[in-house]
Amino acid sequence: MKRIKIIGTGSYLPEKVLTNDDLTKMVDTSDEWITQRTGIKERHIASQEEATSDLGVKAARRCFETFDIDPKSIDCIIFGTVTPDKLFPSTAIYVQKALNLPNIPAFDISAACSGFIYGLAIANGIINSTSMKRALVLGGETLSKVTNWNDRSTCVLFGDGVGCAVVEESHDQSGLLSIYIGADGNMENLLHQPAGGSRNPATFETVEKKLHTIHMEGNEVYKYAVNTMQMAAEKALSMANISSEDIKWFVPHQANIRIIDTTAKYLKVPKEKVFVNIDKTANTSAGSIPIALDQMNRDGLLKKGDIILIDAFGAGFTWGASVIRW
Ligand code: UT7
Q: What is its subcellular localisation (predicted)?
């Protein structure tokens, strides 16, 4: 088996920032409630003209420029998102078009918040089983486009943004030491967008009932998120034969600071090793982990040889975790 490694990261958050105080003018909420229950202070919101692929293209260009990667060397584009530009074709197709990379395969993965880790797993498979050498893996969303801005139980939680990584075969000790992904469809109705697909095609009634927006039973999702993120992290650690004491950075999906703290405590990872940016980004679903990795990379927090644990959980339910030697 070839081991793949991340050779560059990128991210893009839209310019507009919506604070908790801004939200208090839209729904019956408070900065105190949002901060205490979630850890979120503000989130970025895409403009009307900005689609998910537009954020992805900016993230990819930043990655290519910063890490001196020739875009023409990319053999494949994989985009984890549940807020595609259109139902079809894929969002990755629009990235391919904008980056002018004709003929290479480009496709989306629908695995919600676990989309980036699913993307890494698929890139690993592709690099191991085809002649393709380099993949651009993106993850991210414009969740603001499917948010019910009258529903205080969901509208305070999400933000827009895309992150990405370029991966290729590793020729040294660095790379993905393990990658674990899973899913359980039995609780699909706890977090979903009810209309717009073939089950419930768009009608005047579905639009009127706001069925094209995020519906979530937050309390129930919370319980599964805590248990599953612990389980996934343990699995990835044991597959890599790494103890949690060896972790330099724990980079969890940023859905709720209480979920992050509980998972870290269970894994016995001290607070100073846990990367948190939920206060500034809110929950960007598939964007969460690649945006975090890129911010850490740019801030010089990731040093060669560091052991990093990434861990995600999302709608489906889906989950994924990976141990990476940087
Ligand atoms: O990324 C994919 C996975 N997603 C997640 O992991 C999200 C998991 N869930 C959560 O993070 C939490 O369940 C939430 C942050 C969504 C909610 O926190 P909670 O502590 O579970 O609150 P709750 O839903 O039990 O609501 C408590 C109270 C309710 O009022 P009553 O019934 O006690 O009077 C809500 O109506 O808080 C009320 N509430 C709010 N109050 C002010 C709900 N949303 C708000 C709000 N502002 N925005």
A: Cytoplasm
Ligand 1, residues 29, 37, 110, 113: which to mutate, most atoms within 8 A of Cβ?
A: 37
DSSP codes, 174-214: -EEEEEEEEE-GGGGGGEE--SSSSSS---HHHHHTTTTS-
Amino acid at 181: I
Determine the pLDDT at residue 40. Answer: 98
**The pLDDT of residue 279:** 98
Q: Are 290 and 11 in contact (CB under 8 A)?
A: yes
Mean pLDDT, all residues of the chain: 98
pLDDT average, residue stretch 124-132: 98
**What gap in Å lies between CA 241 and CA 193, rounded to an integer?**
38
- Residue 9 is predicted with a pLDDT of 98
Span 240-275, pLDDT tens digits? 999 999 999 999 999 999 999 999 999 999 999 999
Atom of ligand 1 nearest to the CA of 156: 48
Write down the domain spans for the chain: 4-171, 176-325
Residue to mutate, 222, 261, 285, ligand 1, most ligand atoms under 8 Å from C-beta? 222
Q: What is the CATH code of the structural domain delimited by 176-325?
A: 3.40.47.10
Q: Do domains 4-171 and 176-325 have the same CATH topology?
A: yes
